[in-house]
Every structure is written in C-alpha cells, then in structure tokens.
Design goal:
The protein is of the alpha/beta class and 609 residues long. Helix content is 41%, strand content 16%. It is built from 24 helices and 19 strands. The strands form four sheets. A six-stranded antiparallel beta sheet has the order 2-3-1-9-8-11. A hairpin with a 2-residue loop joins strand 4 and strand 5. Helix 15 crosses helix 16 and helix 22 (534-549) runs antiparallel to helix 23. The longest helix has 30 residues, at 442-471. The chain is globular, with a radius of gyration of 24 Å.
Length: 609
C-alpha cells in the first residue's frame, strides 16, 4: 500500500508548485515509508510514497508508459489473469508489479479496466497528451481517495491531511459539518470529507478531470437477482469464494501475518492461511490484542458471554501458528487517542481506533502485511440489528439510534426532529439505491436495504479505521471478506440461508465446517476486544473534566459545557443509549469528545455559518 497525491492545473505552471507538493507528500510518508517519487509537467504534479510489498525493483512510482503516468495505492488479487490477457494482446511488461498491470490495463481498456480488477485500490492516471486526469477507487472503498477544487484546478490525495497542506484548502467546517460529526460520527456521508471544500470519490466510482471540468460515474453496483442455488450449493459456493479470496491475498514479497481474535471470521482466515503456509513449508504468524487485567475485570453479558483469550490459544494451537499477544495498558490506550485522531483526520471510534493503532504499531516491527477478518458481519448478518425486529425496521441507521440524545449535547439550537431529519437524508439516499425483486417478502426487502446501509456506512467506517490506523504505521492490512465477488453473491442469498439454524452468520458456519473446531465454529459472535478496566473510565473522566475547564478548550465551541458536566456528574447515566454500534458506550463517548477537542486544535478547524 502507498500514499498518493497530486495537483492538476491549467492556469499556472505546476512546476512552480514544488514546495506545496513536498508538504503534501511529507505528511503521507507513514503510508509509504520505503520510497518516494514525483512526476511533474506544466499541468500536472504527481507524488507517491511507497510501501514495498511486491516487486521492489520494478514497482517504483510514479510509473510512466508513453503519455500515461500512474500513482497507485492498492493491491490487485487477480494480477496474473489480467497480465495474461494483456500479453495476449501484445502488451509487454518490465516487471511483475500490479502497478504496471493497472497502468497498462488502463491504457488498453480505458475506464473499463476497473471492471476487471479484483482488489483494493485508489489510483490516478495522467494523460499528458490529452491533459486529462483519471481517478478510480475500488468497489467496496477499502482504499481512500479525497479531492478538492482549487483555482480552477484539482487536488487529490489519499488522506485529508495532505489536501490541507495546500494554502487554498482551508480547515473549515460548516454547520452541516458540525451536525455530521455530532449526529452521525464517526460515520460520514458517502462522498463527503466533512471539511467544507473536501470531497471523497465514492467507492466503485471513477472520474475524469480536464479543462472542461470534472465528471464522475459509477462502474459497479449491487444488483438484485433471483437466487437459484440450493442451501448446500450455496454453502459450497461460499466456501469456495472465501477460500479463494484468502489464498489470493497471501501473495507478498515481504513478511505476512494474520490477525486472530478467536472469533469466527479471523479464525477462518487464519486456518486457511496456515494450511497454505504449510504447503509452502512455512509457518504462519498470528497476532491478537488484549488489555492488562482484562481477565480480572471481565464480566460476562449476553452481548459477550465469554473472553477471547482461551479461544485464541485454542485456535493458535489448532492451526500451529507462531502466535503473539499484544497487551495494552489503560494509560497508553488513552494517550493514543491523539495519535488515532491525527491518523484518521477526524474524530473516530475512540479507543476502538487507538487500540488498533497501537496493535498495528507492534505488528509493523516484524511484518509489513496482515490479513484481518473485518466485514463478514455486515454482509452475512452478524450484528444484532439484523436479528432484532424492533431494530431491524427502525427508520434510521440501526447502530445509531441516539440521534436526539446526541443533538441535546450540541451547543447550537437544534430540535430532536431536526436532527433526525438531517440524519435521515443520508439514510434515505442509501435506501434509494437498494435494488429489490418483486418477489421479495417485506423481510427480504428490508434485508437488502440493511445490507446496503451496512456496506455504505457501518462497514465504511470500519474500513476507514482499518486503513488509517494501519497505514499510519506503514502496515498493509487486507480484508478477504471484502472481495467483491463475495459481496455480490451474498446480496442475493435469502435471509433464511444466511441465518441458518437461527444463528448470526449461520451460513458461513455451515460452509466452513471441517476447517475449525466445532466449538469455535459455533461460538457466539464476539465483538472487537476492548478494555474492561474501570480505571479507563476514571482516567477519561478526569481528562474530559480538565479539557472542559481549560481556557483554550475548543470542544465547547461545538458541545454544551453544561451538558458535558451533567454527563460527567452522572457517570454517563444521562446518556442512555450507545453512541455508535455496540462498542461505543459511555467511556467511548468521553473519548470521542476528547478526540473532537484534539482535532479542532490540531487542525485549527474554523467553524463557518
């Protein structure tokens, strides 16, 4: 993976933009710590920061072929198939990097090349003869790509912080941006960048920019089709797709490992990877995260009936991996909230972010690539909102039902109804994209809507988190369950099959029978691990109280100081619902507020009416 950025301009010589482009490149250095490069002509300035994973010798960027130059951030998992097709057309190659394949596929097929790619990517191709830029992002949106219009030209970058290095892009948010952060955060609108002048290329979209302007189009969407396979055929099909996705993503010229939580998804990936490693005469390394004194502080609940630790040990022994536990302590977890918000460029998932940031930091000391189990829950129905009817048919995002409570914290005067209307605009926009069949029952129709809601918002939030926390440490993390073939196929699988035996992800459990121990296979879903230490809540409470009392507090420009004090005085009892999903409860609300204050100060954010 890498960091990319560029500036296109037709009214001034881009060769005079070196100082600005150096700054844009510098802040992306953590994404690409191994090498850097630039391309420049009178109308285009492209920069690249490289994390070397494949073809160290011949994969340098920017890469030029004739009139075309590419900067690319990503990984293709069907490189060899595309290369073979191009070779059959007489195309020659200098190396074995996927970058060269992407570039020459674009030269050969134009924007239709994106339909051929199986991978995670964001890239830009500059045509120096036509003076036209092409931008493209992967179907699921695993890799980011932001842009801004400046002085009749265009800026683009992998991260918001890079765009903000340009003096014409100011860190300004409008009242709509405030509401997006406080009523929807850590999610953000599809295609939005929260800042007033920054947008994000949506997943599965490409765009052209030239002197005539900016045009954008979608190249892929989920289509509703009749599912004709039996349950056994569907189960076998899913097993084949998942196994193939994992195997494809094991390709690397640098050390690779797997995340292992002891839950279903990471265990499946680790088991398949371990078997492939054995065939190569190698031993897989797995990594897990835990917290100091978690065993002593853990309390079972219906949401999480048991600890992960014993299951991790069992799986590591079962697959024969070299396993490493990363144990985090409360002060480090709290301190890393600042690192996480700087990595994400926005207030995020609080300690869910900061813990992953620290976890990736440790892994990077020994590995450059990892595989992780994210995104199976969104597409196979792993979350409670798929199974609880009162939440399933909620008229809004089911993981974020506390919109009125959020609005009550705002310093601006906004009613609960106005707040819910604001959020519902994004909700309804997503529903309008959901394809259905006339034969769908009310439940099946809702499951298709829920699928798309999860894909565009909840999963997108987790993918943002995964990309920024890992790449801030120069670690590439791959997500096999995001293989678009799995996503496409799963959209049309009937809910009765997905919820086999009345279980969350029941179909996957049946499909992957035999590669995991039975008790691991049917273990109740376990959430991403977080600390159960009561000292964490106490430390956050102290820091938030100090933040509110500080003369230079920026948080209270957005949030009511009185409401925050009430929240602190009642130990969070005045906020009765989760902030976001199952993981962001009262401690994470405190942490989110601390991240919001840090973000406002670090980015010197201006709030515009």
């Amino acid at each position: 993976m890498c960091g990319i950025a560029g500036q296109i301009g037709f009214y001034s010589d881009m060769r005079m933009q070196e100082d600005i482009m150096k700054k844009m490149s510098a802040v992306l250095a953590p994404r690409g710590p191994d090498a850097s490069g630039v391309y420049c002509d009178e109308a285009a300035y492209l920069v690249h920061r490289r994390l070397i994973v494949v073809d160290p010798e011949n994969g340098c960027q920017p890469m030029t072929a004739g009139q075309y130059t590419i900067v690319y951030n990503g990984e293709l998992y069907n490189t060899e198939e595309i290369r073979a097709g191009l070779i059959s057309r007489g195309i020659e190659f200098n190396g074995h990097s996927d970058t060269e394949v992407v570039l020459k596929a674009f030269i050969q097929y134009g924007e239709d090349c994106a339909k051929l790619f199986n991978g995670i990517f964001a890239f830009a191709v500059w045509d120096s003869r036509k003076r036209r830029l092409f931008l493209c992002r992967d179907r699921i949106g695993v890799k980011p790509l932001f842009y801004s219009f400046v002085n009749g030209g265009l800026l683009f970058a992998s991260e918001i912080k890079s765009l903000l290095q340009h003096p014409a892009v100011q860190p300004v948010i409008t009242q709509q941006g405030v509401m997006e952060i406080m009523l929807m955060g850590p999610a953000k609108r599809v295609g939005g960048g929260v800042f007033r002048d920054i947008s994000e290329l949506p997943p599965a979209h490409y765009a052209y920019f030239d002197s005539d302007g900016f045009t954008m189009a979608s190249y892929w969407k989920l289509k509703a089709e009749a599912h004709t396979e039996s349950f056994e055929e569907t189960s076998a099909h899913i097993r084949e797709l998942i196994t193939d996705a994992v195997k494809r993503q094991l390709v690397s010229d640098v050390p690779l490992c797997c995340f292992l939580s002891g839950g279903l998804d990471s265990s499946i990936i680790s088991a398949i990877a371990a078997e492939e490693f054995r065939k190569r005469g190698k031993k897989l390394s797995t990594w897990s995260i835990d917290y100091k004194d978690n065993h002593r502080n853990f309390k079972a609940s219906s949401f999480q009936p048991d600890e992960d630790a014993p299951w991790i040990v069992k799986m590591a022994e079962f697959i024969g991996s070299n396993h490493t536990d990363v144990v985090l302590d409360t002060p480090a977890l709290t301190d890393a909230l600042d690192d996480a918000v700087l990595a994400r460029d926005l207030p995020g998932m609080a300690d869910v972010d900061s813990s992953l940031y620290l976890f990736c930091k440790e892994i990077k000391k020994r590995f450059a690539v990892a595989l992780s189990g994210e995104c199976a829950d969104e597409i196979f129905g792993g979350y409670p909102w798929y199974h609880r009817k009162e939440v399933l048919f909620y008229d809004g995002f089911p993981w974020s039902t506390a919109v009125p409570e959020r609005a009550a914290l705002l310093k601006m005067n906004i009613s609960a109804a106005e707040a819910e209307d604001f959020v519902r605009q994004s909700y309804n926009e997503t529903l309008s994209h959901a394809e259905h069949l006339d034969s769908d029952t009310a439940e099946e129709r809702r499951m298709r809507e829920m699928y798309l809601l999860n894909l565009e918002y909840f999963m997108a939030t987790l993918l943002d988190r995964k990309d920024r926390m890992s790449m801030a440490n120069g670690l590439e993390v791959r997500v096999p369950f995001c293989d678009y073939r799995i996503v496409e196929y799963a959209y049309n699988i009937p809910w009765s099959m997905k919820a086999y035996r009345g279980r969350e992800k029941g179909l996957i459990r049946h499909a992957m029978s035999g590669i995991l121990p039975e008790d691991v296979l049917w273990r109740k879903k376990s959430p991403y691990p977080k600390t159960h230490n009561p000292n964490y809540m106490h430390l956050l409470s102290q820091r938030l109280s100090k933040c509110i009392a500080a003369e230079d507090c920026r948080l209270t420009e957005i949030v009511s100081a009185d409401k925050l004090r009430e929240l602190l005085d009642t130990d969070g009892a005045s906020f009765t619902k989760n902030w976001y999903g199952q993981l962001m409860t009262v401690p994470q609300i405190y942490a989110f507020m601390l991240q919001l204050d840090k973000w406002l100060r670090a980015y010197d954010v201006k709030i515009s009416n």
